[in-house]
Amino acid sequence: MKISVINGSPKGNNSVTLQYIEYLKKRNAADDFSIIHAGQQIRQYEKPGAMDEAITELIGTDLILFAYPVYTSLAPYQLAKFIELIKKHPQAGKLAGKFVSQITTSMHFFDFTAHRYIVENALDLKMKVIEGHSAEMEDLLSAKGQKQLTDYYSRLKFAMKNDITAYTRSNHNVDANFTFERTTAEPDRKSAVAKADTVIVTDCEPENLSLKNMIEEFIDIYPRPVKVVNIGEFRFSGGCMGCTRCAATGDCVYKDGFQDLLRNEIQSSHAMIFAFSVKDHSMGTKFKIYDDRQFCNGHRTVVRGVYSAYIVHGALNTEQNLMDLLEAKAEISETPLTGIACDESQSQSETSESLKKLSLNLDFALKEKWDKPQSFYGIGGMKIFRDLIFVMRGLMKADHRFYKKHGIYDFPQKRKGLIIKMKLIGLLMSIPAVRRKAGNKMTEAILKPYKDVI
Ligand SMILES: Cc1cc2nc3c(=O)[nH]c(=O)nc-3n(C[C@H](O)[C@H](O)[C@H](O)COP(=O)(O)O)c2cc1C
């Protein structure tokens, strides 16, 4: 069997994920593995004609296997760009019917959204998707992890032989091909205001009139000064390379000014609105490079309390994974989501209405200092980070200092009083006579402190 591995890690041969491939390669000598270093060589692939060879290889293979680290809940920017290049290639249609699967390593922090993203794009190309393998970074070091990887590979072959493709809800979400545009161009206005407490971060291109008009309309109705930062115009030196040299100090090795832009122009605001067009089931590659490069903030919620919102051009209603991601992004960074305005209805009046509501909501949040509890995304995600940083505190010094300062190390659970109380109740409840007598008294006892507060 011929397997073309698309290595999405910017670390190339030094990728941890690639070791999972090497492991399989060594134990399956009859299979022919070839590696495309998409992550490390993305600049090469962006050159005119450079994708031809890769596409020819992918067309001629039996299985396309994406191997990549999860980066900010999705694939690394470099791999997202490679996927964009595949989809744009005139021969891309010939990938239809090809088997595709994926292996990731991560800390299991939003690994599922990364997997769904690959599935959705593979389905756009009408490929046959086989369930992937999501490993924790160090799984391969244990016998259990090795068995799981071997099992995945056997299962993969079995699925290919019997044509068993993965069922995902994305099966119902094959490329919405969202192309409608509002055609009336509005005059260019200078929207940056010096002391803005709200920033709109966008990758809007001049010809994207739909998004441009939505941004302009929002600025018109929003009662506060707004500053627009167009990351589409920013010249990134490159995507995050995962070198983790920012871990101790929070300083990135790139000196292209992104850190200053991020900290002085964006993170210093009280509200951030991200304005984008749905692209390849994501916010597009400009926002991907922006998100990945924020790794200089480590796992610190440096913008906690800053409100977030979205202005979206495109059929967001068919993009469940992206919707989950938008919500999750807000939760993880503790930037309460105040709303999403979208033109998915394709009606001018409904779009205007959604912008108006977003404006009202965001203004309310800022005025009232709206305090919103986190959901599972934020709470659950932070527990993973807490455990991770505690173990890695020797390296991730900036994160460690932040976690100590903000009391994020909430373990082992210090609620001794409650633990003892629960033990006592448990002991009593194990006696049948007490259990019978307790009846409604238990509910009463639970409710008592609430009644007192009321
Ligand atoms: C910029 C960046 C973003 C990351 N984002 C995530 C994430 O969202 N979820 C997660 O579980 N791990 C995340 N990680 C950790 C990597 O997925 C993990 O270290 C992976 O095993 C690295 O694999 P590689 O050596 O093949 O690149 C991130 C790492 C970096 C550098």
Describe the structure.
The protein folds into 3 domains: 2-172, Rossmann fold (3-Layer(aba) Sandwich); 198-368, 3-Layer(aba) Sandwich (Rossmann fold); 416-453, no CATH class. Residues 169-194 have low confidence and may be disordered. Helix content is 43%, strand content 14%. The protein has 454 residues and is α/β, with parallel strands linked by helices. Strands 1, 2, 3, 4, 5 and 6 form a 6-stranded parallel sheet that branches. A 5-stranded parallel sheet has the order 8-7-9-10-11, with helices on both faces. It has 16 helices and 11 strands. Bound molecules: flavin mononucleotide.
How would you describe this structure in keywords?
globular; 11 strands; single chain; Rossmann fold; binds flavin mononucleotide; alpha/beta; 3 domains; 16 helices
